[in-house]
Amino acid sequence: MEERLEALIEKLGVQKEDADRIREAFVFACAAHKDQKRKDGSPYISHPLAAAEIIAEMGLDIDSAISAILHDTLEDTNTSYEELKKRFGQTVADLVDGVTKLTRVQYTSKEDEQMENLRKMFLAMAKDIRVILIKIADRLHNMRTIEYQNEKKRREKALETMEIYAPLAHRLGMQRIKCELEDLALECLDPIGFKEITDELEELLESNSDFLDHTIELVGKGLSEYNISATIDGRIKHVYSIYRKMYNQDKAMYEIYDLYAVRVIVDDLVDCYNVLGIVHDIYKPMPGRFKDYISTPKPNMYQSLHTTVIGREGVPFEIQIRTHEMHLTAEYGIAAHWKYKQGINKQDEFDKRLEWVRRLLEAQEDTDADEFIRTLKVDLFADEVFVFTPKGDVLNFPAGATPIDFAYAIHSEVGNRMVGAKVNGRIAGYDYQLQNGDIIEILTSKQAHGPSRGWLELAKTSDARNKIRQWFKKEKREENIAQGGQMFETALKKLGVQLSDVLQEEVLPHYLKRMSFGAIEELYAAIGYGGVTALRAANRARDELIRLNKLKGEKELVLQPTAPKRPRRTESGVIVEGIDNCLVKFAKCCSPVPGDNIIGFVTRGYGVSVHRTDCNNVRALEKTNDKRRWINVYWTEETNEKYETSLVLTALDREDLVVDIMTALSTVKVPVSGLSARRFSNGYDAINISIEVKSVEQLSDITKRLKNIRGVEQITRKSYDG
Ligand code: MN
After folding, report:
1. What is the pLDDT of residues 470-516, one digit of tens each?
2. pTM exceeds 0.85 for this model
3. Ligand 1: centre distance to CA 334 (Å)
4. How far is the centre of ligand 1, averaged over its atoms, from the C-alpha of 693 (Å)?
5. By the 8 A CB rule, do 437 and 386 touch?
6. Is 75 a catalytic residue?
């Protein structure tokens, strides 16, 4: 064991102090696992040591290697986080803690969609990507020694490996480990199928034993004629990829083109294309099988040229051509990038790289780079949380969600009958914020009183809030009316308006009509269950009073209680009071959308221009212009689908900021008609976006989404030119 330790230290190529830290970790782990044995009878320490060897093989840093040696101490021994922190530092303690949390997550086999959620949760839980790498090393060694486990455990671990770890390794670009994990898992899951393939491969190799050697020699000779120095090696495809092709595509082994693969590794990029030309001179290429992953890398950073050619005796085989650097990335993926870390001193640069990795992980497998940009979700990691139901299903929520959101996500009845919640077996408050990996259980009772109004504040998802409002709307009409009436009166008072003024005979019908309610009780009920905010209702009441008083004062019009019925919709979505079919245009300065309070200005010759009442131009024009040119306008009951409006974002400038904004907008399918950005010397950008929306509600959703983008500090609607 000590010999292996020294070999490990040598492999890591570390300074004396770091070597001592590693030795200390080893001694510490030995003592912690003192009496424990592996299933094969060897001392337990052989496992964490093997995990650390894999980490060294990947080329990771010292802290990762130390954490690998210690990775089971929190889970399986009396060691505490504090102790690790004191002895080995914060980073190591956090890494080990992260690995332990992942170890505690229980999986059972799931539907595909569930698996995807599990993989995402995995990533979300591991705040440091090294945690995942250590976990993968841990799993790789466990799979290498799986034969000592019983049948049931073998199957379980193999399934998990196939569904979680191998796909993760793939996304991280760790080709070599991915293949090994898949083959080890396949051998457990389908030993017969596995053996059939390995037997057949063996036979094939025997009958065609010098195929690869001969090919390598021929290619090597070709390259040396052009003075290109290259490393050439040949291999057989890994078992699981053959298995998948045979079973998924129903092919016999001889029908698989790339059973044999020859790899040519050269010094620089230009040579890659030179080699391709030379190879195509030697062998006949198969049409349609050339792929240039150098100019278009795979989402997991893989770069190479692939071509399939016809070899000796008509045997097709694949040739992969790449540089040494590309090769390192192809084999070790993200881990390979650790090697470059030494050159980067600034932590934020490193974080930037990780940020990119996080996004990369989000990309679907095997999509091209463009597709990757389009499908990427910007805010997954910061803003989502993944939790389990007691049955082991994974649900995801926005960060900050509470048991109330969870209950309503299960079913509205579960929410309405909720009397409490358990998180990981313990009773938790309704305001508890769900954490990744929590197991949530909702306690219900038939005698439950239903949701309380306070829940509306605690619920984070609009789904839960809507269901709660529905409940109040249905179950509590009387209560809603009473409560809504009170809320309305309070809101009016704040605006300096008396309820009795609004209830006047000559005011109320106009007001209700404007609010589209038949009776004041209906309005109260709506306020009570939250369908209309009291503030909005009060504002409208005040506006209506002001309008009516104005009319009275000017004595221009007699109120007409039997005003002609308003059309449900017009071409513009706006009705101009007293004028039918009038030309309407929306002022560019404030670009109102349905839901905004609006006012019209009669232009000379261009119809009525509609502004928001809070538009700066309205205030300016009001002072200078003929008051008679201002006219009341209203949104019709049904408005159009798209109104152009603008948002101004203030954001700290960073790389990819605009890409993130565009992605967020395309995720919610908002058409963008213009975007301009200005950079200021203080490091901030002002970004002006013109979009098409259908209502203020949609606009506020969009604003919320944009606010979540890193760096965005303020979002305002454009309200004047400039
Ligand atoms: Mn372990």
Report:
1. 888 887 788 888 889 999 999 998 888 888 888 888 888 889 888 88
2. no
3. 22
4. 52
5. yes
6. yes
